């Protein structure tokens, strides 16, 4: 049986959850209860609510995200049927799979083969196919609908190609045993009725979900038949909740049976801007000044009004514009913080050095690139450079410029010849040559040649044509030989919180593992193609800004902040096309096509432009999350 409780997150759903938890454990304080939530941030919030604010015992209370719940079920059945274990892969895998299928399969994909082959094309196609997967669309039914004229005749061929590609992705994913989080969860649905974990529960609470994919909805339907289930659904009779109301009416109401099953919690009487919440609106120029202004207001709240740092939240629709500024601005104001944001991996000097190193065989050892690499503090050679009196990068740069070295091993041989005697450079236009001349000792030139020749030998050993795994292994060997794992100038002993450099290396290694997962496609690439793929993977990776938990200001994106209250909340980035985000129709699966799939063929797929209703809901949830001050 499914019971539904609706209302605002604060205080309606939170107080209802506490009451229902007490009721579930009234007769037996050791009763097993599970609470499923949409995000790890909400897990932390409920732990604090139950244990600190409400003094509830959390013995035998399992707080899980949806993915953690799926992993728990998978651990139970892993010994029974190993075939159910699906290996999770990222979006890059599916983008490359789509590229591979489009290029190598001719059946039914001709309209897609005529479009451009830029990396953005594969990303856009995967976005369309992912929406079809999330909606649980049957490829055969969609193809049949296209052939029977449910869609416009002019677009029928392209849609059939898209649905055929979707079918091929599903087929290959099943064959290779790889998939998304939803594929993983879907594989567990047949085992739900026999789950020992679910059988041990007296009650299961779904908390804070206002939208579910088709797989998550199917899992809910199966779970409610196995264990008594209550859904805490954020919903009010308010136009701002249109997005949630639409999902509720179509998908939740049919699951609710019997009288008095759906309980409407009374809404709060105080609106934003009323007597309990003070609203302040400010305008500044630029992301850095926006953060600096926020920091000044935070310090005023703490020092003048007695707020604690952990009672204050800072939320943006996305933290991408602020990722590279958070650490510097908040540290400058001496404000501790925790965040789920990250900085782009491509912005890290180590990542740029790695890409330069990988590209050397492609650009024929371009002079400037070689100098950038061998003069980097992170570069290492078989001959220790740090402390060597002949290690003079500024003289190497002047020498290479004077010798007119641009690229190619043949031109770099000039350094070897120059090492046989004292080299006097005269070039008043070179800023490295002061006083009009510079004497470069033979030992300095010899060390330069030794370092460069060793680098040449390492780069020439990389395969010209190989599988992706072989390329990644060769790159890893090249990097381990020439890049240092220890931060330049760093001490051997570091504080536990000083993990920035290690985090960068971890992100790089995760990127390598993601590339290795592509090896199952059996495709061979040239080194140049691999480096292009590597750069694409690095560009989409990120490094966590904060990895140490503390009682500081909480900085989140709007999706992660859902359901978390703050005594004072700063909503930043309220700029056009940022919040609300700019939404465009899918170029391959237009809203008119989605309407046919939804209303005619009966699949749960939303129109893209309906996303503006979710933006309105997110903003409303944020406004309601502030209990005293809203900025």
**Strand adjacency order, main sheet:** 3-2-6-7-1-8
Supply the helix-strand structural class.
alpha/beta
Q: What is the count of β-strands?
A: 20
Largest sheet: 6 strands, parallel
How would you state the average pLDDT, rounded? 87
Low-confidence stretches: 268-274, 491-498
User: Using only CA atoms, what is the Rg?
Assistant: 29 Å
What is the percent of helical residues?
A: 40-55%
- End-to-end C-alpha gap: 42 Å
What fraction strand? 5-15%
Basic shape: globular
Query: What is the count of helical runs?
Result: 24
Describe the structure.
The chain is an alpha/beta fold and 631 residues long. The protein contains 24 helices and 20 strands. Helices cover 47% and strands 13% of the residues. The chain is globular. The strands form six sheets. The protein has a six-stranded parallel beta sheet with strand order 3-2-6-7-1-8. It starts with a strand and ends with a strand. Helix 6 crosses helix 8 and helix 15 packs antiparallel against helix 22.
What is this structure, in a nutshell?
With 631 residues, the protein is of the alpha/beta class.
Structural descriptors:
six-stranded parallel sheet; alpha/beta
List the helices and strands and how they pair.
Elements: E1 2-7, H1 9-24, E2 32-37, H2 40-53, E3 61-65, H3 66-77, E4 87-88, H4 91-104, H5 110-113, H6 119-134, H7 139-147, H8 156-176, E5 178-179, H9 181-186, H10 196-199, E6 201-207, H11 214-224, E7 229-234, H12 242-252, E8 262-264, E9 278-279, H13 287-305, E10 312-316, H14 323-332, E11 337-339, E12 342-344, H15 349-359, H16 367-374, H17 393-402, H18 409-418, E13 423-425, E14 438-440, H19 442-460, E15 465-467, H20 468-482, H21 500-516, E16 524-526, H22 527-540, E17 542-544, E18 553-557, E19 566-571, H23 591-600, H24 611-625, E20 626-630
Helix pairs in contact: 4-6, 6-8, 7-8, 13-14, 15-22, 18-19, 21-22
């Amino acid at each position: 049986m499914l019971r539904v409780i609706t209302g605002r997150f604060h205080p309606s759903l939170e107080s209802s959850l506490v009451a229902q938890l007490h009721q579930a454990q009234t007769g037996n304080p050791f009763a097993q209860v599970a609470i499923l939530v949409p995000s790890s941030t909400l897990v932390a919030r409920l732990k604090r609510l139950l244990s600190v604010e409400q003094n509830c015992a959390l013995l035998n209370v399992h707080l899980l995200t949806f993915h953690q719940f799926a992993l728990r079920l998978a651990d139970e059945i892993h010994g029974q049927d190993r075939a159910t274990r699906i290996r999770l892969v990222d979006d890059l895998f599916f983008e490359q799979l789509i590229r591979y299928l489009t290029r190598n399969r001719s059946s039914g994909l001709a309209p897609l083969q005529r479009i451009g082959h830029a990396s953005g094309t594969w990303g856009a196609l995967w976005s369309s196919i992912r929406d079809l997967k999330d909606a649980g669309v049957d490829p055969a039914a969609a193809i049949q609908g296209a052939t029977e004229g449910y869609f416009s005749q002019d677009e029928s061929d392209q849609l059939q190609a898209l649905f055929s590609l979707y079918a091929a992705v599903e087929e290959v994913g099943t064959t290779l045993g790889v998939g998304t989080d939803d594929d993983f969860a879907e594989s567990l649905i047949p085992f739900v009725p026999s789950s020992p974990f679910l059988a041990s529960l007296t009650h299961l609470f779904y908390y804070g979900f206002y939208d579910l994919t088709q797989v998550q909805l199917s899992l809910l339907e199966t779970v409610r038949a196995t264990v008594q289930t209550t859904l805490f659904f954020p919903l009010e009779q308010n136009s701002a909740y249109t997005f949630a109301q639409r999902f509720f009416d179509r998908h939740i109401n049919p699951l609710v049976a019997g009288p008095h099953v759906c309980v409407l919690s009374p809404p709060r009487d105080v609106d934003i801007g009323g007597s309990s919440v003070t609203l302040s609106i400010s305008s500044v120029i630029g992301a850095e000044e926006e953060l600096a202004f926020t920091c000044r207001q935070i310090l005023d709240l703490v020092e003048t009004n007695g707020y604690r740092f952990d009672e204050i939240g800072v939320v943006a629709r996305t933290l991408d514009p602020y990722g590279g500024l958070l650490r510097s601005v908040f540290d400058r104001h001496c404000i501790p913080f925790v965040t789920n944001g990250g900085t782009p991996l491509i912005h890290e000097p180590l990542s740029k050095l790695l890409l330069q190193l990988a590209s050397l065989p492609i650009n024929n050892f371009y002079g400037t690139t070689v100098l950038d690499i061998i003069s980097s503090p992170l570069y290492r050679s078989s001959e220790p450079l740090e402390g060597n009196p002949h290690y003079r990068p500024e003289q190497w740069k002047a020498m290479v410029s004077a010798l007119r070295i641009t690229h190619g091993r043949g031109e770099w041989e000039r350094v070897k010849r120059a090492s046989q005697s004292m080299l006097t450079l005269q070039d008043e236009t070179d800023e490295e040559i002061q006083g009009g001349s510079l004497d470069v000792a033979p030992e300095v030139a010899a060390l330069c040649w030794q370092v460069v020749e060793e680098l040449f030998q390492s780069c020439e050993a990389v395969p010209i044509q190989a599988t992706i795994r072989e390329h990644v292994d060769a790159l890893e060997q090249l990097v381990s030989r020439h890049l240092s794992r220890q931060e330049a100038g760093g001490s051997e002993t570091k504080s536990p919180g000083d993990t920035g450099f290690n985090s960068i290396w971890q992100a790089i290694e995760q990127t390598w593992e993601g590339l290795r997962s592509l090896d199952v496609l059996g495709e061979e690439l040239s080194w140049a193609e691999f480096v292009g793929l590597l750069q694409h993977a690095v560009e989409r990776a990120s490094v966590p800004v904060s990895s140490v938990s503390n009682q500081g200001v909480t900085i989140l994106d709007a999706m992660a902040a859902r359901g978390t209250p703050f005594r004072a909340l700063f909503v930043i980035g309220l700029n056009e096309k940022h919040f609300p985000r700019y939404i465009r129709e899918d170029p391959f699966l237009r809203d008119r096509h989605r309407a046919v799939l939804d209303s005619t063929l009966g699949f749960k797929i939303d129109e893209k432009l309906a996303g503006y209703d979710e933006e309105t809901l997110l903003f409303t949830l944020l406004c309601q999350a502030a209990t005293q001050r809203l900025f």
